[in-house]
Amino acid sequence: MYVNVAVLKETLPHERRVALVPSVAAKLTKLGARLHMQLGAGAGIKLADAAFPDVVFIDDRKRLVEDADVVLAVQPPALEVVGAMKDSAVLICFIYANQEPALVQRLLNKRITCFAMERIPRITRAQSMDALSSQSALAGYYAVQLGATHLARILPKITTAAGAIGPAKVLVMGLGVAGLEAIATAHRLGAVVEGYDVRPETQEQALSLGAKFVETGVDARGPGGYARELTAAEKTTVAAALTRHIQQADLIITTAAIPGKPSPKLIGKAQVSGMKPGAVIVDLSAEGGGNCEDTRPGETIRIGAVTIVAPLKRAIAARGGCQRALRQEPVQPAGAHAQGQCHHARLGRRDPGQDGPDPCRRAERRCHEANRPTCPESGLSMESQIEITGFVALYIFMLAAFAGWVIIGHVPAILHTPLMSGSNFVHGIVVVGGLFALLNASNTTEQTIGFFAVLLGAGNAAGGYAVTDRMLAMFQTSGQQNKHAKPRHAKKA
Description:
By secondary structure, the chain is α/β, with parallel strands linked by helices. It is 39% helix and 13% strand. The chain has 14 helices and 17 strands. It has helices at residues 22-30, 61-65, 79-84, 101-109, 131-150, 177-188, 202-208, 232-248, 269-273, 361-368, 382-409, 416-422, 424-439, 444-484; strands spanning 4-7, 34-38, 55-58, 70-72, 90-93, 113-116, 158-160, 163-165, 169-173, 192-196, 212-213, 251-254, 280-283, 300-303, 306-309, 336-338, 341-343. A seven-stranded mixed beta sheet has the order 11-10-9-12-13-15-14, with helices on both faces. A six-stranded parallel beta sheet has the order 3-2-1-4-5-6. It has a two-stranded antiparallel sheet with strand order 7-8. The chain is extended. It starts with a strand and ends in a 9-residue tail after the last helix.
């Protein structure tokens, strides 16, 4: 019982990444997977085939994938490669479904499950599989290095025997993952850094990394944490506020992008013409058309005395890809859907020739449940939201019970009465919470729980106040008796 895993060699121009590295290959082999790679798959990052022990290398791409249960790649594979894959196989890569309609249709026809790495949710549980964020961080670091090689000056301040050279001014536009990493890198290299974003909440992040924040007075926060497209009036306001900062910068790095839409234009032709001689613009949003009106995706050009570098993200080499996706089950896989049916393949150990019932009914049920009502804030179904809320409430109750047992268990019995009288505020909080639960109850169970919470909390609070009053009366009586008592060691007359 094993899984056949095939790793493709990337063929797009300038793409040097590989979907699997030797350290992860060894772990997959221990789990029982049989690994097959295309000859020279790691050559782009200087990894020879000999660096992958216990891996079978095959030169023919079609023969490589025809018996594979799981196919790994960085960029979307060619249509003929997908056509050679067997039905119900699994493909893990960046897919960019909105830009590859023909590829998506081929996946549907072949009943292939595709895990789109760019669609991995940015949540804690899936953080180790968040290839989009990891590659964006590397792109931000790379952008500063790329800009520095084209600058006619150095980034840090340097004092020599002949005099001092001041630091370069760097402006980062778009403070997402790539933008923040660019700020951190430029600041570490000694440049004076400014940051700009249409989302005001990024100001604190920029300041924490040592940059100044350029305020324009425009708030363009959009859904999902991304920025929305600016209106014509907002674009005019932003351009007027940014022009001075653009013309004073030696290096500008732009990273603003809107998923599924063209990149917003942040730098106009007039602003470029007014920049310093020798200034450089590194446009990381070139794949969406670029943030500069003069950008040519994939090219480095000169407009007057200004250099505009527009690398495609696939040209930024980095070891990584999607190998982490094999180590744990994705939280929200992007399955292929057609005519109301969901076709999935299982990432389990099975014999490729084994016959039997469909091994992925559980995945199908998850897909068919997609039409259920969902919570607008979390995106979860209402049933899942209730289950999670109940689990959290039970978890808090268990923690509270354990903490109470530990604390009370170490209190001497003689102090139990004053302890109870001093904890009336806790019962008051229980009463308030019970009232909220009772008033907002949607079923009989919630009404019952709220009623008993109010009843028991009120009883405990009333009992606590009664005990307190009794103790105060006891201390007052004792005090009065002591006032009239004769001293024990009175001197004899």
